[in-house]
Each structure stands twice: as structure tokens, then as C-alpha cells.
Amino acid sequence: MASIIGDVPANHKKLIKLLEQNIEGKNIDIIALPEVWTVGWECSKFLESAEDINNSKTIDLLRVLAKKYNSFFIGGSLITNENGCYYNTCPVIAPTGDIITTYKKNHLFSYYGCNEGNYVKCGNSPVMVNILGLNIGLSICYDIRFPELYRAYRKAGADVLINMAAWPLGRKNHWLSLTRARAVENQCFMIALTQSGMLADNSYNLGYSLIYDYNGEILDEITSGEGIMYAEISTDKMLEFRNKCTIINDIHKSYEVKLC
Fold this sequence. Notes:
The chain has one domain (8-247): Nitrilase/N-carbamoyl-D-aminoacid amidohydrolase (4-Layer Sandwich), CATH 3.60.110.10. Helices cover 25% and strands 22% of the residues. The protein is built from 6 helices and 11 strands.
């Protein structure tokens, strides 16, 4: 999705249209969205777009869509205001419209001229959610650079890892390498979503989204622009593979470095 910077109502309409054009009549169990799709990646717009999660037009929209499509929504992220503290927050919505859980971005990107950490606070805990028997580890954008987070998910029983991002075009190799590595090293399915489109400073989002299997093979992808990708996830072969290659058993309790 190519979000319109700073225009939450327009991005709501864009999401509705994308879903109507791509999934009407299909039986979709889980729908996942990219990071800050409501406002686009422009940190200076974050606070003015922030919503109280208990009184949020974005959450209300996701509730309506979850009921309409009878689907779980992993809702990308929006900026939330919680008692004067601002977060980059992913809501997970059930087909009933209920909020199952939320995940607050654990690592904030404040490099290359970005200053996310000046506007929002970081979350302090990983969150794994069980949807239809799948344990799904949640993460947002810059989190992908911290393999410790994904290893914690794998050790806690993750089947699927998801990263919802607004990733820059100039770091394409990083995105493709890191997302595939998280799948392979943890023997998990990996859903890697990123926005497309131009940013406010005339730079561009990467717009390259992928779904990997536990072997790092691509199940579906969007190489540029807006669109929807699909995959059917079955854990049978993944579990068989894990039983043959039990790398999780070879992790040491600690890795103390000896300086010589």
C-alpha cells in the first residue's frame, strides 16, 4: 500500500478499495497490513495522527472489515496515544471485531535523518498471538535487525513470524537478506510487508513484500507498487523438517566472548 502522507481518512478509503478489488468473495483467514499505513512514514506527522486505541476511527474501521470479511486482521500499525505516551502500535482484531492483543514496536529507527524515537516510545515486550492454531510472532520494521527478538519467538513456539514495515528503497538488499534470514534461522514462515510509494522528502518506500516458507523459499511476493499477496500456510512439512534438523536443541545457554 502506498499511503498518502498525513491523510488518515484517505488511507482508510484506500484500504477499503484495495480489499474490495482483491479479496471480495474469497475465504481469507488472516489479513495483514504494513507499518503506519494510516499516516505514511513521516515522523513529523505521527503525533497529529495519533489515536486513543479505545476511541479510534482506525480500530473501528478494522473491526468493521474483520466482520465483513470474517477474517482476523493483523492491522499493520497506527500511532496511539496512551495517557500522553505515544507508540507505534499493531492491533490484532478477531472476526468478531474484538481486539485480541496489541504489539508496540520494540526498536525505534532514528538514523539517516529519521527521528522516530523523538516522537514515540518503544514497547518493552515481544508479543506472540495464536490465530487458528498458528503461533505468530509480531514485529515492526526496524525490529528485523534484531535476530534476538525472532529467536525468542521461535523458542516460545512460533510457527509464523511477521514484520510490518515502511522500508526505504535504498536498503533493498538489507530487507531481502534480513527477512529471509529470519525465516531460515528460525525454521518459520515469514511474512514481510512493506509500504510502497513516495515519501514526503521525495524518497521512496521499497514496495517489495514477500511471504517465505520455513526454508526461505518465496511463496508469493509483490515486487513493486500496491497489491495483495496470498499464501496458504500448513505446518505439517515445517514440523517434519524441524524434527530432521533440530537446530533449536543446539543453542547454547550463553555465548560469552573471550577476548584474547
